[in-house]
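Lab meeting prep.
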Amino acid sequence: METYLTVAELAAALKLQEQTIRRYILKRAIPYCKIKRAVRFRPSQIEKWIDEGGLEAAQESEQEKGAKA
């Protein structure tokens, strides 16, 4: 059985701020699941998302948002 990651654990693994991960969740830009009310991440889904360019796309979206502000 695969161990799920918390927001804090994923943020540390990706070297991102927890706030950034939470923004990705709100935009539905990152694969996640909810267990009761807790948000969790499957490492295999996150690896696939990164391999498919999801992290780069999410970061570019963040940069564009910052440039418009």
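Slide two material, second protein:
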Amino acid sequence: MGIPKYAQGADYSRLVRVLCKKKCMSITYAEMIQPHPGWNVLKESDVFKYQAKCLKCGGIAEDPYNWMSP
């Protein structure tokens, strides 16, 4: 399974999969707004510390404890 077309232009080093709670209401690809700190850091971080923009609807995800690798 490859990366879908809507996400192919994203910086792969910042790419994550998120549950988009905005318009999509499904798991989508998103691009982190800041550099990816590593999965262990994300899992332990507070809400709002890291953000990722949904590449389908543009919604901002701010709950990194549920983010997945691409």
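Talking points for slide two:
Residues 39-44 form the longest helix (6 residues).
Residues 5-66 form one domain.
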